[in-house]
Amino acid sequence: MIDKGKKLKVCILGSKGYPYVYGGYETLVKELSERLVKKDVEVRVYCHRSLFKEKPKEVNGVRLIYTPAIETKSLTQLSHSFISMVHACLSDVDVIFVVNSGNGPFGIISRLFRKPTAINVDGLEWLRPKWKGLGAKYFLWASRMATKWYDQIINDSDAMRDIYLEMFQTPSKVIAYGANISLSADPEKIRKWGLERESYFLIVGRLVPDNNADLIIEGFLASKSKRKLVVVGDVPFQDAYASRLKNMKDERLLFTGYVTDPEELKSLYHHCYAYFHGHEYGGTNPAMLKALGYGCAILALDTRFNQEMLQNGKHGWYFAKTAASVTDTIHRAETSPDVLSRFRSTAREGLTSRYQWDTVAEQYLEVFRELGKRIKKV
Questions:
Q1: Which residue ranges of the chain lie beneath pLDDT 70?
Q2: Residue 261 CA to chain centroid, in angstroms?
Q3: Of 31, 59, 189, 201, which is most buried, counting CB atoms within 10 Å of its CB?
Q4: Same fold for the domain at 9-178+356-372 and the one at 187-353?
Q5: Residues 16-68: tens digit of each pLDDT
Q6: Structure pTM?
Q7: What CATH fold (topology level) applies to the domain 187-353?
């Protein structure tokens, strides 16, 4: 039990680390850690040792611990989380916060050490096309194990909470992902790609099958649009799916690869005609929240998660999972400029308080304080 007046000690593991921000979990860790420190919480973040050339012990008040991993495609993350969990359980930390449902089985370690834990389980990893066979079975099993061994399950959308209730009969606390609002961006930043304001549609995300960039590209190429389709993102390894997309030849297609300059990325969002969101299996998606916060007209795949985020059509249109539907949506968008202008003007209203980082941090702090009061029982 935490002594009254004692500073709460929280560690975070399961991400690449801090301040490594290119990714959803990493952004959560950054935004959450910095706000918790300001609320007088001692925060420790476990970092992938191999990803950091310089290894300061502390950045912005966040204590950093660099742990090793078995550096293979399938074992890097899991081995890093395992080692980090053991280290955390042997420390004087009060609460352990884990991200990624793949780390579900490691909750048994913290249970043995009587360390209070919470886990953000994110999306439906077992359905993602990249995890086939044993990979899919592992993530389904790991997600089930998370519900058995962790004290608090956290989901980032109401739809995902319902799925965990249906599949695992386990309630969870919903804490949405956050975003920052921006009212303007430098238009000069997009000129490096030869782009002008509203001269292009935009996709942002990893080039993996469940983000459906292939479907959107196919539908776009079948349209008569004279705009470009700008695809931001890649994968950090050789991949047949990503290579096939990048090898498509059409003067209207532009692949930028990763855009690591946040001002360039913000400008790409701000000045697009419309943002295409094809993500299929996540909960609250960071790229979608950026699109809302940056004032985009949004065209999204029709899923229960995207319906929730766009408030059932208030902040965008939906397309079905067919290339023909994408083509029809492009035609509808290009012949309805007034509607898209309205979407842009009201997009930021979609970032209700639940999607504000300050609100998100306060909700997590409430969970951590409550966990810190518990005495763990085996």
A1: 1-5, 21-23, 73, 126, 129-131, 236, 375-378
A2: 18
A3: 201
A4: yes
A5: 999 876 667 888 999 999 999 999 999 999 999 988 989 999 999 999 999 99
A6: 0.85
A7: Rossmann fold (3.40.50)
